[in-house]
Every structure is written in structure tokens, then in C-alpha cells.
Specification:
Strand order of the largest sheet: 2-3-4-5-6
Largest sheet: 5 strands, mixed
Bound molecules: zinc ion
Oligomer: single chain
Number of strands: 7
Strand content: 35-45%
Number of domains: 1
Low-confidence stretches: none
Mean pLDDT: 81
Shape: elongated
Number of helices: 4
Helix content: 10-25%
Radius of gyration: 25 Å
Distance between the termini: 71 Å
């Protein structure tokens, strides 16, 4: 996500961006490509507070059946950016600051923070569905047989007719 610090006004502003993670950041979050970001920005002088909602979809592998599965992923993260005078040493007391920029900075790339956030939000054991039966074996087919699923999906209104059939 790119910010133009010089164009961010004092006070509150909002920005929405579709971020395409660059190669470097995709190493961290290889499963996400396009990420929709909505940032709420509050600027107080040389400090910019950003609260960013993101949503994307990630391509993973089901931890049970190993089939590829695409899952939605969304979250919020906050970062703090601070302007420093060009060449000025960065003070240790500003530990909470995630990104520094100087007055000449045209664009500030906060995608690395986004990639970190996505990486930590990835599910440890992704599942293709809640009831994933796991790997298919010859004895136990993965899918329910069509017959049983047909029975389940019979319209209950037919039950009334079944009674007649028995007579
Ligand atoms: Zn599965």
C-alpha cells in the first residue's frame, strides 16, 4: 500500500486501495495477491496513525485432504509513520513507530506491514470444508455416494405421497 505523506492532510482522512503485493512481500504472504485496503488515517503534525482494514483471498491447501482451497481473509492492523528531518538520527524512544520518512518522501510503501499481517493471520490448519473427510482411500471414497445424497435431498412434501405408495 502506497501513501503519499505530503498529500495526507492534518486530521482525519480515508483511503481505499487495491494492493498488489510485490515479489518481496509475496515471499512473506505467497498465497495472497490482490488485497483490498481501506485505511483510516489520522495525522497529527509529523506523525501519521493508520488503521487499515484489509480483505483478500488466500490460496491454501486443505490440511486434511490436501486439495487446493481458497479462503477469504480479512483483518485490521494499525501502524504509525513518523516524519524525521532528512539525515536526522532516528531516536530510540520512538519504538512504536513502524515507518519513518523524511520531508522529501513522495511515496511511503507500507505493504511490508500488510504482508506481515496477512502472514500471521493465515490459518494454521486450513480446511476445504468443516466436514472434510480427509484423504480419499480405495476403501472409503471421499464423496458421499450419489445415492445417499439423493435420499437426503428429497423434498419433504414427497413423504405424503410415499404413504399412498405403501397402500
Ligand atoms: Zn479437505
Amino acid at each position: 500500500m502506497m501513501l503519499a505523506p505530503r498529500k495526507i492532510p492534518d486530521g482525519h482522512s480515508e483511503q481505499t486501495q487495491t494492493v498488489v503485493l510485490c515479489e518481496e512481500n509475496r515471499e512473506k504472504a505467497p498465497t495472497a495477491t490482490e488485497v483490498l485496503c481501506r485505511a483510516r488515517i489520522d495525522r497529527l503534525g509529523d506523525t501519521i496513525y493508520i488503521e487499515c482494514d484489509y480483505s483478500t483471498s488466500v490460496a491454501l491447501e486443505c490440511s486434511r485432504c490436501l486439495k487446493p482451497v481458497t479462503l477469504p481473509l480479512a483483518g485490521t492492523f494499525t501502524i504509525i509513520c513518523k516524519e524525521t528531518a532528512t539525515g536526522a538520527p532516528r531516536r530510540d524512544e520512538t519504538e512504536e513507530v513502524d515507518f519513518f520518512f523524511d520531508g522529501d518522501c513522495e511515496e511511503l510503501d507500507i505493504s511490508a506491514a500488510l504482508a506481515d499481517e496477512i502472514m500471521t493471520a493465515l490459518p494454521l490448519k486450513p480446511l476445504c470444508c468443516e466436514n472434510c473427510p480427509g484423504l480419499a482411500t480405495a476403501d472409503a471414497p471421499r464423496e458421499n455416494s450419489p445415492k445417499s445424497s439423493e435420499t437426503e435431498s428429497v423434498d419433504p412434501r414427497w413423504n405424503a405421497l410415499k404413504k399412498f405408495r405403501k397402500i
